[in-house]
Write a structure and sequence with these properties.
The chain is mostly helical. It starts with 6 loop residues before the first helix and ends in a 7-residue tail after the last helix.
Length: 176
Amino acid sequence: MLPSSIGIPFYSSVLSGGLAVGASSVVGPMYIAEISPSRWRGRFVAFFQFNIVLGIVLAYFSNYWIHGIAHDWQWMLGVEAIPAIAFALLLYTVPESPRWLIQKGNERQAMIALERIGNREYALAECAGYRESDAEAKKHGKGAVKQLFSKKMRLVLSIGLVIAVFQQLVRNQCHI
């Protein structure tokens, strides 16, 4: 049981940590899928998911070892700073999204980022593919958003929303 004087800071920390983890669990696979060569894409996203499971297991073990010492709940929250700081520092080594760079008119930087992954031919082919898919998206405009909220998608969207809300209401943190 937590003392009432730390309730708001504790729950706000849990909320902000949950939002950060949730955002990274969405953005991470999107970035990996965007930047990975197609033949490796599935493996890289699967490896990302494996690392999430490994992180959960390591958190359980570290909390087990910490449990029982003075101020254990504070240590449990503090220990998560170690991988968070490592993650934040390692993000500086990740190249910017080539698709985003091309959309912002910086194709030279996009080529440099793609050449870090593959060779020049790979970078040229990917840039051409990005331009083609961006042109296709512009052609359709906002139709994709309208299609998402169309009558035929309403059931699927509702089911996804109900599952997401239910998961949060029951506080199920193990989303493996």
